[in-house]
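During the reporting period the student researcher (J.K.) took over the structure-prediction task from the postdoctoral fellow and processed the backlog of single-chain submissions. One of the processed entries is reproduced below for the supervisory committee.
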Amino acid sequence: MSSILFVLLACHDPDVGHPGDDSAPPAASCAEGEVLDGDVCVAEACGVGTWGNLPVDGNTVYVDVAAAVDGDGSESAPLTSIQAGADLAGDRGGGLVAVAAGTYVEVVAMDSGHDGVTLAGRCRELVTIDGSEGGKDDPAIAIIGGRKAPEIGVEGVTVTGGRYSGVWAEAATLSMSRCDFRQNAIMGLFALGADVALTDVGVYETGTDERGRYGRGIGIESGARLTATNCTIQGNAEVGVFSANASGFGTETSLDDTDVLDTVGTGIEVTDGAALTASGCTVQGNAEFGVLALDADTTVDLVDTSILDTSAAEGGGNGDGVWAQDGAAVTATGCTIQGNNEWGVFAGNHDADAPTTTVVLVDSRVLDTHPRGDGSAGDGIMVLSGATLTATGCVVQGNAEAGVFASDEGGGGVAVDLSSTEILDTLQSAEGHSGRGLDVQLGAVLRASLCTIEGNAEVGVVAHDEGTTVDLVDSAIRGTRRGRTTGFALGLAAQRGGLLTATGTEVSGTEGPGVYAVSGGRVELDGGVLSGNGFAAAVVLDGSLVLDGTTLADTTPDDEHGGGFGVFASSVFGSPTLRLSDSTIGPHDYAAVWLDGAGSYDIERNVLSGSAGVNDHGTTIHGNAVFAENGVTAWNEATATGLLLAENTFSDASEIGVLLHDASAMLTGNSWSGNGTDLRQQLCDGPDHVHGDVTSEDGTVTNDDATPLTTEDLAGIPSTVVCPTANVLISSIMFTSLYLPETETAE
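J.K. obtained the following structure tokens:
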């Protein structure tokens, strides 16, 4: 006894305390999220011991690649092959196959004979199924049912090296949890007519086949149904998640709290009539497209999902956030689409025979879209032929080129409906391209209700081309900034035959005219306010402007172009048409209404105020309620040309209320108050005509002197001077002609 004690004492390490001795060193510690298994720290999910936290029972089949010999599947004599374990469990009618830590270099095949089997690795950090030694047509795990679809589970493993996908599930029900797919070829997971549920699964770095094709993280086809919860699909080659009906129908994909990241190609692609929903997801850092929806009956429903930072694919092009085409339908609710390239949201058809593509945005944000490398595009929302887009309660901000661009170049019809939506702070490209809030052209139709279009560059809202219609209701266009190339800004504009109507709308703070009609464009305002704009509240050149019940106030002169008008109409580029009724205009520095040259001017039942005028070299000039010059004629009812002033109130012009310079008018039923002189007509008798005689190419000499006002025109006007030949009250200041540059049409 004593000798044994001596030996034990002799073997005792004097540096190690006795049991219970406080001086004993602490046990090894592990990082947060890890536990100590023997003398090794492992992930907490792995548990401790050979089988970790697996819920083993008396029916469990045990597999351990590190076992000395291939046993019978019991805990004390485990099998060394997962395939053998799955087969044994299948023969027993199902149950758990508990897989110990290790790398299993094998291909696992399961079918209807494996119904009810669950392959459960200790944890994905320690258990790997490596299919790299399989044939070129072999997935690492193949689950293929027959007439009876087996129900199979896979848990706690990493699947890698599959030469023809990591997991192939066909005609089966598969549930996978706490698994990773890494560096498989063609597909990480492929489901063909199968029901698949993924929970806490990662799919990483799926590569192409030997010919450089595919490379999809998850592929769902031919009536398969997938639900993925709390998953990560990252760094795959072609598509992160691909869903298609292919030769089947009813393909459905549901992504919840799942991230699709850094795909070399498209993040999510849905095609051929498949359906996908994504809730609480992040789609970020992909190339070419964040979310791509193609073809008739394809539906994508995005909820509380972010589509971020899509970049151009290698070699350039695309980089769009959400793209819907050729009959697909996309709905985004509570989503953020930000930092993408080319277009934040695109809707349109490339196939002229495709049904209408539809996009619906609700309470979503489209932000900071970047232009292409050449400086073009960068629009927040792009809608082209064959598409409709509806946006409610959205914010479209900080994009390049246009906040919303709509064009029906292909003739398939384009309709955009915006409600309670903000279009803000659109940026110009480095080359000075655009920066417009709403740009609508080539027959597209856009309606905006209760919207705010603010802080954009060059033009707040513009309608181009015959058949194009823009309708604004109870909306506000504020603070449009001057463009780099134009040198001025426009709040609302119509050109080349486009029609823009606005009801109850505010246009204010424009660094240029609030409203602009040119080149056959037509603008119609019913009610609303034009306030604090530059040069003129409204300009009409060779276009048409209708103002009814509208207030025009507080126009400021432009630093470069001068001005200070309520309405400015000129025939320099062609004959303008102005219909002004039941409106309140003025006071403005130069005139409430300034008419230059022949046109059609019907001005009835308005309150037009003059002002203190402008100091021109020590002389006060203008400040008129109405100024007309350069051959404006009296109204001709038959041709609806000339100037009609009927039932208006002209007031508070310190110099002259209505000044007709080389011009005439039909006046009826007007009232006058507070003017220095109510009415003056000058330069209508020939000798001092500014323009003189005009000789045409055939030698004909004509003179376009204004017709003197008649006694009937002057009835009831208390103070009148008719056709003096001296003291011509016309400013020597020259006004620069305004213009609207042609807009590039989207390809």
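The committee noted the following: The longest strand covers residues 173-182.
J.K. will present the remaining backlog at the next meeting.
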